[in-house]
Amino acid sequence: xAAPVVITRPEPDNQRWAAQLQALGHRTLSLPLxxxxxxxxxxxxxxxxxxxAHWPHYRALMFVSTNAVRYFFAHPLVQAAGIAPATLAVxxxxxxxxxxxxxxAAGIAPAxxxxxxxxxxxxESETLWQQVAGQVQPGDRVLIVRGAEPGGGTQxxxxxxxxxxxxxxxxxGAQAVFAPVYERHPPSANAAWQAxxxxxxxxxxxxxxSSSECVLNLQQLCTPALPGLWQAHTALxxxxxxAQQARTLGFAxxxxxxxxxxxLHRCIQSLA
Length: 272
Description:
Elements: E1 5-7, H1 13-23, E2 28-30, E3 35-38, H2 42-52, E4 60-63, H3 66-74, H4 76-80, E5 91-93, H5 97-106, E6 113-114, H6 125-132, E7 141-147, H7 161-171, E8 175-185, H8 191-201, E9 206-209, H9 212-221, E10 234-237, H10 240-249, E11 253-256, H11 261-269
Parallel strand pairs: 1-2, 1-9, 4-5, 4-7, 5-6, 7-8, 9-10, 10-11
Antiparallel strand pairs: 3-8
Helix pairs in contact: 3-5, 9-10
């Protein structure tokens, strides 16, 4: 029997990914390595309030993830401002197919959505910029809807895709405005979660990572780890930065794959 695939995404994406992979014939285990919640930090609320003060004078809205879509349109401040997907007329930028799907599901007209080409090597800010750079004019504002940094920080960490995108906008004479609407937290390592972890460690498994933060959370929650704990397991990483983090954790076998479902399916099949 093929080794199971451990889905590390937060809920509800964890269940969605598991269902999709199961439909393709893969056995899966669930171990969410991140929790997502609405951002309630005063700094984040103030940043969103200031961002909405410029509405509707934005060239585009850039949503960094499916959670950015969910938590933006559900936010009380956004709803109080009368912003609804069905009436939106501004361009919506998406870094990949998951976010594009969330935008369509929310009610955004497909014609308003810009995203990397379907066959792009990576789904990220760099490949998105190739599609949208021509839209930007000096003096434009682009609203980047994202998660808050740890401690409620409203600016993205240096080296992140959001910071890179802000630099490209600035070079065009435009301004990035950040709207943090959700927070990321390590999972609650309660008895039920620990039981899930032990089930994942009981046999060689293929750990699917789509976030470096999930790898870091696993490292912290499994410290002190047994020597060679991850040697029998394989890490499937959807970005080179995530792959490097998995190697640092101790996975000897790390395989990179595009985050598209078909690519992940073929990658897992190749390991059988």
